[in-house]
Amino acid sequence: MNISAYTRKEVGNLGEKVAAEYLKRHGFTIRDRNIARKTGELDIIAESEDTLHFVEVKTILVDEFADAAHTGDEYDPSINLHEAKIRKVARTGEWYVLEKRWEGDWQVDGALVWLRRRDGMARVSYLPQIV
């Protein structure tokens, strides 16, 4: 499935879906997705071993997956995972914890997703505790 014509929103939605599947395969339970409040948006809220994980997903389209010969910002969605964005996720996570009366531990994580244009294949890099 060629995804070259996808809009930014469609690419982001696909990246979040891929990240959620990745988390499920690694033992997480997905509690919520795309929760928006005044303080910001939570892409994925997952649970693992009595800890809530607020996962901020950053997705980028690539022609080919990066390897040792390809290094550069075009292959690095983490450049969009900056301090101000992480703070917004943490503030919104605090709201979520209070609203849901969560009494356990929680943390802010990141998930970087590379989607290959020609076939929609994905690579995911999970970044625990980015705060």
Please name the defining characteristics of this protein.
131 residues, Trna Endonuclease, Chain: A, domain 1, 27% helix
**CATH topology value:** Trna Endonuclease, Chain: A, domain 1
Task: Please give the CATH class.
Answer: Alpha Beta
Largest sheet: 5 strands, mixed
Number of helices: 2
Order of helices and strands: HEEEHEE
**What is the overall silhouette?**
globular
**First-residue to last-residue Cα separation:** 36 Å
| CATH architectural name | 3-Layer(aba) Sandwich
- Contiguous uncertain segments of 5+ residues: none
> Could you estimate the helical fraction of the residues in percent?
25-40%
Please tell me about this protein's structure:
The chain is α+β, with helices and mostly antiparallel strands and 131 residues long. It has a single domain, classed as Trna Endonuclease, Chain: A, domain 1 (3-Layer(aba) Sandwich). It is 27% helix and 37% strand. It has two helices and five strands. The chain has a five-stranded mixed beta sheet. The chain is globular. 25% of the residues are buried. The mean pLDDT is 91.
